[in-house]
Task: inverse folding
């Protein structure tokens, strides 16, 4: 029996503004040269004895420090952002400044830009992601703060923005405590910094703040839209999908909400990995036009089957981090980097699915999955030892989940929202994750919810029996398990085929992780030594053989497409700060196991 949820303890901050599909809105891209200055003791936040930082340290101030010190010899400023080094953003500081390789803490970023705000229009500063906490100032005034390194957020700056020169300052704090998400210890690099685009978005006085257009499981085109602004209540709206000859007029209610459903036109071509058909969709409301490119498909479970557009589907995938190919990668994903990674999955591995681990990836990546035709598992970083009994941590997790879903629920490729990875079972954990699963279903009744679980193992008559019975499963649509038999366990690879997998639940199972490390180019004629390509290849053969005997297995995302940075991996010969479980090296050199998986998918899941 699941322990009573403690959700109600802390109210969850609503996501506002949503600025749905804001990356496609008219905007001024603030990427480029920014000054930066480290602030290890957070002097810019709190001064001597914790008071106001004072003029001498207030990095976000608009004072021309050089002039002030020139004109008043007595003046004392212990920073000068305009003469500080510059970096090209978005990027992580470990990429743009090698001396900050392991820096965790506060860094100030600042740039000036020219704007031309028109009367009656509204302006928003939109951030793709800032890792971990962001403190945002415009023209010396605080406009807001945000927590969470992987979700999009925005602040309205109408009235604060000036015609002509403006100054934006962002204090980025990458330090995390045990009550943060994820907690400090992970198996991936904390790329501190402004890791995705910052844009100045302009809208009319009344605009479409949130919009969601999809195909429902009963075959109707559904639209929900939220107007924001004086003209929201009773505002007129029109949904249009020109390629389908579909237009739908409507009127918002008193709260500015519009919801409508129409039977899907017979001409509708459903999206699938083989036919990733996308449609241009607009919602016009007064002077505002919201737009996006959307595919229409249904995803559901029936017993232990996953159904895509009503037909059983096997998710032939791989897991990957948001890290481009390269010897010195950063986290700022460009369309080229996303295409390179996902093309390796689609064409290289013959896959139809990808697990974007362990946090919401950039919308550049999820849009690319829409376009290339790859189903997606998307997750928030509820990873390992989270403070499950902390109400504030739960409120942060719920807000993060809402940010993720509201940003990406028009992303057709996304099939599964995951609410946790390898979290130790406890009453608090069960309640925490069940609450998230309920939230995900409430925010999105068209997708599946899962979590990457650990699995118990028993010996029965000499056979190893794995029973998938985590107490969280009743709250999930799809079961998923991470298993590293033969890598983290002393099992002989030849034993894997005899493993028995069971579950008391009639639900589909995904092997959300399995894998073995190998240093590209490291070979071993005996095939027995870990970190050799031969061992990794044999590990894959044995695990795929085991997988093919699991009767309710409906997908897999082996760990991992390419080697990625991890501070936990410090073997001087085989790792040097990289997790080496990639099927490719960090620069894209394919290891032998790459072909083992590619052949398996080509043969078993064409
Ligand atoms: C875990 C975890 C990954 C990690 C992997 C590994 O299962 O989810 O984040 O990188 O195992 O040990 O390589």
Result:
């Amino acid at each position: 029996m699941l322990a009573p949820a403690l959700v109600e303890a802390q109210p969850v901050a609503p996501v506002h503004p949503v600025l749905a599909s804001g990356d496609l809105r008219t905007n001024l891209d603030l990427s480029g040269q920014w000054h930066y200055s480290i602030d290890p003791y957070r002097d810019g936040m709190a001064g001597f004895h914790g008071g106001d930082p004072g003029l001498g340290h207030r990095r976000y101030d608009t004072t021309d420090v050089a002039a002030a010190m020139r004109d008043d010899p007595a003046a004392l400023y212990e920073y000068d952002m305009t003469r500080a080094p510059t970096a090209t953003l978005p990027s992580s500081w470990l990429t743009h400044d090698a001396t900050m390789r392991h820096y965790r803490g506060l860094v100030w970023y600042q740039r000036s830009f020219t704007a031309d705000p028109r009367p009656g229009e509204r302006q928003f500063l939109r951030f793709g992601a800032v890792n971990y906490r962001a403190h945002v100032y415009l023209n010396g005034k605080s406009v807001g703060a945000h927590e969470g390194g992987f979700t999009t957020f925005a602040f309205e700056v109408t009235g604060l923005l000036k015609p002509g020169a403006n100054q934006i300052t962002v204090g980025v704090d990458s330090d995390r405590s045990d009550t943060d998400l994820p907690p400090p210890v992970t198996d991936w690099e904390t790329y501190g910094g402004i890791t995705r685009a910052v844009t100045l978005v302009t809208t009319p006085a009344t605009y479409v703040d949130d919009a969601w257009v999809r195909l429902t499981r009963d075959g109707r085109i559904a639209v929900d839209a939220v107007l924001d602004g004086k003209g929201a209540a009773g505002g007129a709206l029109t949904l249009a999908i020109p390629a389908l000859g579909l237009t739908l007029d409507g009127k918002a209610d008193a709260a500015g909400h519009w919801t409508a459903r129409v039977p899907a036109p017979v001409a509708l071509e459903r999206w699938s990995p083989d036919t990733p058909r996308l449609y241009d969709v607009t919602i016009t409301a007064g002077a505002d036009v919201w737009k996006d490119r959307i595919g229409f498909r249904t995803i559901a479970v029936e017993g232990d089957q996953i159904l895509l557009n009503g037909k059983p589907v096997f998710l032939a995938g791989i897991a990957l981090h948001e890290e481009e190919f390269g010897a010195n990668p950063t986290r700022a994903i460009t369309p080229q980097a996303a295409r390179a990674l996902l093309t390796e999955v689609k064409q290289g591995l013959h896959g139809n699915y990808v697990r974007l681990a362990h946090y919401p990836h950039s919308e550049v990546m999820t849009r690319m999955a829409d376009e290339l035709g790859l189903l997606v598992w998307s997750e928030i970083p509820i990873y390992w030892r989270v403070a499950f009994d902390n109400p504030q941590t739960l409120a942060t997790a719920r807000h993060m989940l809402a940010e993720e879903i509201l940003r990406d629920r028009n992303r057709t490729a996304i099939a599964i929202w995951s609410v946790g990875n390898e979290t130790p079972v406890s009453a608090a954990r069960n309640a925490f994750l069940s609450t998230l699963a309920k939230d995900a279903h409430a925010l999105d009744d068209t997708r599946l919810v899962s979590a990457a679980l650990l699995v118990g193992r028993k010996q029965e008559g000499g056979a190893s029996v794995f029973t998938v019975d985590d107490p969280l499963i009743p709250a999930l649509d799809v079961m998923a398990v991470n298993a590293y038999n033969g890598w983290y366990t002393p099992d002989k690879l030849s034993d894997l085929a005899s493993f028995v997998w069971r579950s008391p639940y009639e639900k589909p199972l995904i092997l959300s992780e399995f894998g073995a490390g190998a240093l590209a180019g490291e070979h071993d004629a005996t095939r027995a030594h870990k970190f050799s390509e031969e061992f990794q290849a044999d590990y894959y053969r044995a695990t795929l053989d085991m997988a093919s005997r699991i009767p309710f297995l409906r997908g897999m995302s082996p760990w991992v497409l390419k080697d990625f940075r991890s501070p936990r991996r410090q073997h001087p010969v085989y790792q040097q700060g990289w997790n080496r479980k990639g099927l490719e090296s960090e620069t894209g050199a394919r290891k032998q196991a790459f072909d083992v998986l590619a052949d398996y998918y080509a043969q078993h899941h064409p």
In short: The CA atoms of residues 241 and 281 lie 5 Å apart. The mean pLDDT is 95. The chain has eight helices and 36 strands. The two ends are 42 Å apart (CA to CA).
